[in-house]
Amino acid sequence: MIRSLRNISRLVRAGRIMARYDALFPPEFEDDVPGIVKVGRALAAIRLPWEPKADAGGDVIQRLSTALETLGPSYIKLGQFLATRPDIIGPELAGDLAALRDRLPPFGKKVAEDIIESEFGQPVSALYLEFSEPIAAASIAQVHKAKISVGDENDNQTLNTRDVAVKVLRPGVEERFARDLDSYFWIAELAEKLNPAAKRLRPVQVVQTLADSVALEMDLRLEAAAMSEMAENVAHDTDFRVPEIDWLRTSRRVMTLEWVDGIPAGDREALVAAGHDMPALGTRVIQTFLTHALRDGFFHADMHQGNLFVGEDGALIAVDFGIMGRLDQRSRRFLAEILFGFVRRDYRRVAEVHFEAGYVPADKNLDNFAQALRSIGEPIFGKNAQDVSMGRLLAQLFLVTDQFDMATRPELILLQKTMVVVEGVARDFDPAHNIWESAEPILAAWIAEKFGPEGRIQEAADGAVALGRVLSHLPDFLERAEKAAHAISDNIDQDGFRLHPQTVRALAEAEKANRRWSRVALWVGALSLFVVAVAQIA
C-alpha cells in the first residue's frame, strides 16, 4: 500500500511536469486526444506558486526533451529506451524520442575531484598531472580531460605525458535511478494485471532490461571490462578501434581511458572538409555493427553520433560502452537468416526461421505469415533510405506481430534499438545510403562460413566436445541416481512408502481445506442456479 502511494505521487509529479511543458498528450496531436484527457492536461499544467515557470516553446521533441531533463537522469534514459519500442508507444512518438540526446548540466570540478580522491584514497594531483573542467556531461556521468605521465619512473630520463579522458559518475545517481526504476516496475506490473493484452508486450521484462542496462552503467569497472573485451574482438580490424583503458586509474565511480583524437561523427561538415568518403563511412558503420553482432555476439548498443569519432584513416572509434548487447550462437543464426532472407526476398524462409526460433506460435499459418512479411519487405527494395519511412515500416511490422501473437523478445530489444540507431548514423553520413546493400556481403559471408563445409565440420567438432563433456559427467550422474534409488528403497517397506508424521499431518490439513472450499463452491453454485431459475420464472 505504502509503495503504491509513493509511486502514484511520483508519477503524478512527473505527469504535472510533462503537462506544464505541453509534452503530455502534445497539442500537435489534439485530434487524437479524448476530451476528458484534455481537461486533465489543463488541470495538471496549472503552476503552483512555488514552482518555476516552464518554457513550453519549440516543437514537441524540444518540449519533451526539456521536460525529461527537468525530471532527471532516469527519465532521459527511459525516453531513449522507449524509442526502441514503437510497439508500445507508437512509431511516431518513437521516432521523436530517438532524437533525444543525453545531455545535462555538468556538476562542478571540485565535486568530481572529491569523488576521485574518495575512490583512490589520494589527491587528484597524485593521479593526474592536469585535470580540466568538465567537457561533456550526460545523465549518469561526465567527462574531464586530463594528462598523465608515462614511462619508467626508475630511470633518470624525462617522462613522457599522454592525454586521457576521465569519466566520473554523478553524485547520488544510483539512489535516484533506484527510486525511479521502482516506479517503472510498479506501473509495468499494474499494466500486466489490468490489461491481459499487455502481457504479450512483457512490460515487466522490458523494464527489467532497462534496469539491467542501467546497473551495468553504474559501475564503471564493468564498462571498462566491456571496452577491454571488444578491444580484443576487434584487435585485427582496420575499420574500428576502441580506446585503451588505464586500469590503474579506474574504479567503480571513475574510469580513465585513452584520449580520442578524431572528428565527431555528427560533424558532417568537418568530415567532408577533411576529405572523408561519406558513402564509405555509411557502409562502414552498418558493416561493423553486423560484424560485431554476428561474428562476436557482442556489440556496442548505443552507437549514435555522439559516441562515434572518425580517425584520420577513416576508421570508426567508439566511446561510451555503458550499454552493450549480447547474442548467443542460436540467436545469431536466426538473425542472419532472417536478414539475409529479407535481402534475397525469400519471405518463406524468413517465415520458417521465425517458426523454428519459436518467435511465432506453432499454431499459426506459415504461408499467411510469409505473406505478411512480403507486405513489409517489398515496399523497401530498390529505394534509398530517404524514400523509406522507418516509422511506417515499424508500424506495419508491429501490426503483424500483434496479428500473429508474437511475444516480445527481451533479448532482442537492444539489437532492434541499435539497428535503428545505426541506420540513422549511416543516413547522416550518406542520405542515399541503402542498408540492405551494405548488409548483404556481411550476411552472405557469415552464412557461407557457418553453413558451408568448414562450418559443418566446426559444428560437428563443437557437438563432439559437448557430447564429451556430457559423457564425462555420466559416472557422477549414475552414482547420484544409485544413491537416490537406495534412499527410496529404504523408505519403502512391505506396506509401501513410509511418510514422516509431519508430512501426513500437512497432507491431511490440505485435504481438509480442499473439502471445505469444495463445499463452499458447491453452495455458491447451487445458489447461482436458484437465482437463474427465479429470474427465468419471473
Please give the structural blueprint.
Layout (H helix, E strand, L loop, with lengths): L1 H19 L14 H10 L15 H12 L1 H10 L3 H4 L1 H7 L11 H12 L3 H4 L2 E8 L3 E10 L9 E10 L3 H22 L8 H15 L2 H14 L6 E2 L3 E2 L7 E5 L4 E2 L3 H6 L4 H19 L1 E3 L7 E3 L5 E3 L5 E3 L2 H15 L3 H11 L8 H12 L12 H14 L9 H17 L5 H17 L1 H20 L1 H17 L1 E2 L2 E2 L3 H37 L1
Parallel strand pairs: 4-10
Antiparallel strand pairs: 1-2, 2-3, 3-6, 5-6, 7-9, 8-11, 9-10, 12-13
Helix pairs in contact: 1-3, 1-9, 3-4, 6-17, 9-10, 13-18, 13-19, 14-15, 14-19, 15-16, 16-17, 19-20
Biggest sheet statistics = 5 strands, antiparallel
Report the average pLDDT across residues: 76
Helix content: 55-70%
Strand content: 5-15%
Distance separating the two termini: 45 Å
Shape: globular
- Major sheet: arrangement of strands: 1-2-3-6-5
Give start-end ranges of low-pLDDT stretches: 520-538
Our Rg estimate from Cα atoms comes to: 29 Å
Structural class: alpha+beta
Number of strands: 13
**Number of helices, where a helix is a run of at least 4 consecutive DSSP H or I residues:** 22
